[in-house]
Amino acid sequence: MDGLIHSYFIDENGKGSPTDLDQFSKDILDRGFKWVHLDYSNPISRDWILNKSGLDEVMAEALLAEATRPRCLVNKKGILLILRGISPNEDDEPQDMVSLRLWLEPDKIISVRKYKLGVMEDISKTIEMGRGPVDTCDFIYSMLDFLIEPISEAVLDIDEKLDNFENQIITTQNFDFRMALSEIRKRIIELRRYLGPQKEALFRLGMESAFWGKEADRARIREMTDRLTRYVEDLDSMGKRATIIHEELAGQLTEQINNRVYIFSIIAAIFIPLSFLTGLLGINVDGIPGSKNDQAFWIVCFLLIVICLGQIIFLKVKKWF
């Protein structure tokens, strides 16, 4: 296997013709554009990117780097765009974002990934149906649309869960969701970690007027940037909400524990004097009062009851419980 996932010559109507790496490297198109999508972990793909793709060494190495964060780099030939998308794998969490790297020229797009990302499969299906992007600008817009939609769903899911946590605290005082809340806070942090730089990358991409032929194209990219900015701001707000919920939860748990400790303290305050008296009267020495009286036991019990009631009345008057 050469690591080739998709490769097309795409005409101005959005219809694609499959091709291979050799044809992709050699052919120059009069109309439309060409797109190749590779698995960069494959040795053949890596060799093609480094030696046959026409990229300079810096940009080629950036496409193949193991650890990347979203960014946008520009040189005279084109634009390097590195993004993150939510993994389509059901076993992965939404915060496990997959890296997608693209080299953009007016008539050529090279995209690479290591792990499967559904956005490129969606674009490939539209191309095969003859309804694909008509130029590179349209390709980027379509890709961003497919890329941002799962992010929107993940943000909405987090928002709904936070609403549920808030309702549980207010209505049921159920504290069993502490671990789930910690997982939500982790998801927010991980998503924010990548979406913040991704927003800046898209903002710079939209500012590259030399690449976008029409103002309408720049406006479409700005629209996507605004959408992503809104989700980043939502995540910031949700992070604060999660912190407030956590603090409220911790406060209610602390109050609950304090109330229980207070009850035990009241009980101890009542029974300590009684324990002292019974302990004093229970010492095994001569001279204990009432030791010769048959009614002494009942007299002592009556006195203990009177003392206990007196303590309860005293505590009630002092409003200690």
TrEMBL record:
Membrane topology, from the record: Multi-pass membrane protein
InterPro entries named in the record: CorA_cytoplasmic_dom, CorA_TM1_TM2, MgTranspt_CorA/ZnTranspt_ZntB
Domain of life: Bacteria
Pfam families assigned to the protein according to its UniProt record, in alphabetical order: CorA
Chief localization: membrane
Any one GO molecular function term: magnesium ion binding
SUPFAM superfamilies registered for this protein in UniProt: CorA soluble domain-like, Magnesium transport protein CorA, transmembrane region
Listed transmembrane segments: 261-283, 295-315
Family to which this protein belongs: Belongs to the CorA metal ion transporter (MIT) (TC 1.A.35) family.
The protein's name in its UniProt record: Zinc transporter ZntB
Native source organism of the sequence: Candidatus Nitronauta litoralis
